[in-house]
Fold this protein.
Amino acid sequence: MANTMFSRRSLITRAGQLSLSAGAVALLAGNESLAGKHASAAGGNDVAILNVALGLEHEAIAAYQIGAESGLLQKPVLDVAVLFQSQHKGHRDALVATIEKLGGKPVMAMTADEYTRSARLKVSSIKSQVDVLLLAQRLELGAVNAYLGVIPAFGDRELAKVAGRLAADETMHYTALTQAMGASLPAAPLSYGA
């Protein structure tokens, strides 16, 4: 089975080329009655975009697993990493269910070894807790920008709100990781999604 490494940039690029239907977002949010109103708009383009997002969630889950198993994280930081990983698993499960409801086939996660060797994750350069946090911070910021990048594709404010909720989780993760490292939060307004 061939797996593809997805990037946050590819989600934004695909969203610019294809827009998620209102039905797909409603399914993702667990609102099947709203999805029914928009079911005719759901299709293969939605599945392709959702699979890119799913690939990103698989990558985040793997990165947190690598960090947790590294032995480099102190107990309070490890607890937060496990919490964030569980939230990414929730995103993954919602994406898988939505893709299946749209008649698509969810992209599979790569093996742990493939993630460890991934050039994007650069696991071999992780030598300290700060290195683990920097990796997670980079991935979370990419997720924030990717999810915010797809919001303008929606005409329905409620559906845009659902997409924003995914971005909000990623923003919370990014902010907590940034503060855990004692780094400065962005000072400029409109720092995310650009």
